[in-house]
Amino acid sequence: MKVRNLVAGVLTATVLFSFSSVFASSVDAYKRVKRDSGGIPKICHYYDDGRYQNYTFKCYNDMGIRGITFKLSPIGSHVSKTVNSSHRLFDSAKSSVDDLGSDLDSATNNLMGFAAAAAVEGGALFSKNVKLAIEAGLAIGIETYATSTDWLNAKESLRKAYGYIDNM
Question: Which residues are the signal sequence here (predicted)?
Fold first, then answer.
């Protein structure tokens, strides 16, 4: 029983860490672009023409987690528009796309905290340390709530961004 709990904790931490690294690597790679840009390339993003005048927006209307590697994937309809930065919906669309990136960054950070707490929980159960198990369990609950809240916020930001871009 002890070994099974430890193995379960380690496997959970490994899976969650790989899930969170997918988000982190996608966001970090995209931030290295020299243009004014934002969002998540596979899901919803924008970039300028190099002069901060014309911006191209590309966005799906939903996202999900697919496969055993937990890859972030686009779902549903796609919209693509190029507009001038003076367009009446430009600021709203750009802000919503930026919010999507921030929300997914927060979800990634909370997911890493969840993975760490799950690993500690496995170790606590293995060593029969009741106090540590309770504390790790509370941390797991907090990180689970924070991660799910950030994920729902990201989905709402994506919904708004898609709506603004579609109406440009």
Answer: 1-24
